[in-house]
Amino acid sequence: MITKRAALRFAVLAALTSSLPWVQAALAADAIPAFKTVAAGSTVTVDHSAWDKLLKAYVVPGSDGLNRVAYTSLKKEHSVLKGYLAALQKVDPATLDKPEQFAFWVNLYNAKTIDVVLDKYPVKSIKDISLGGGLKTLVTGGPWQAKLMKVNGIDMTLDDVENAVLRPIYGDGRVHYAVNCASIGCPNLAAEAWTGAKLEAMLEAGAKAYINSPRGLLVQGDSIKASSIYNWFKADFGGTDASLMAHLDKYAEPALKAKIAKIGKIASYDYDWALADAKK
């Protein structure tokens, strides 16, 4: 027999699970006001050269289109990554123009994600890394709710960077092709650092690469299986089935575009949380 206390605990956990970003992310969190300031016209740039060098050395593009990380080798230069992250957190984003800010936050998110994995490596999935952060973490695991960074004196989680800065402030659904969760199901970790100068080109390339990969869209007969990103974050792609399909159609290669037009709808969603490790 289920006790009232057990039933209540189950209800609370179910409610928390349904509200998690990767389960139901129709709305971004309220933006952090301190990071809304933009220095329009600023020529200030952030030095991402250390991160760029690490990415070019240890991101391994696969024949299957998936970029994996050589964590075993990168572990030897973990101190370099930590030094880059320390320097990055001393930057005042308010001194940057919008593209440079966007690149700053993406690099911070991605570099910290790799740092977290390296701290616990070897692991099978980032979801196996629980660093605290409340009941949400108890339900799902993962490091997203832990206060791991400090920017302009504000303690931040990875979830804050994505859902309280990047999504609500910049309002560009292509952010999902930029931030990387170290998992096979995720859009690729770019093999170079993001910069304001290359932002638009990298966002477009990321969208095209993911949508045309089986991790983004997989057509099986007369059925389309899509990445769960398009379900979790449908609001960022217009919020309707029609707007999402239009987004996918925009970046699909001709053969895939024809299949999308013929089938017309997504039948199911899936996501692979296994670590994108070059050893595997």
The biggest beta sheet, please? 3 strands, mixed
Strand line-up of the largest beta sheet: 5-6-7
Tally of discrete structural domains: 1
Shape: globular
Low-confidence stretches: 1-26
**Structure summary, number of beta strands:** 7
Alpha carbon gap, first and last residue: 44 Å
Helices and strands, in order, run as HHEEHHHHEEHHEEHHHE
Helix content: 40-55%
Tell me, rounded to a whole number, the average pLDDT: 91
Radius of gyration: 19 Å
Classify the secondary structure makeup into a structural class: mainly alpha
Share of residues in strands: 5-15%
Q: How many separate helices? A: 11
List the helices and strands and how they pair.
Elements: H1 4-19, H2 49-58, E1 59-61, E2 67-69, H3 71-74, H4 78-88, H5 98-120, H6 135-140, E3 149-151, E4 154-156, H7 158-170, H8 199-211, E5 217-220, E6 223-227, H9 229-232, H10 241-251, H11 254-263, E7 268-270
Parallel strand pairs: 6-7
Antiparallel strand pairs: 1-2, 3-4, 5-6
Helix pairs in contact: 4-5, 5-7, 10-11
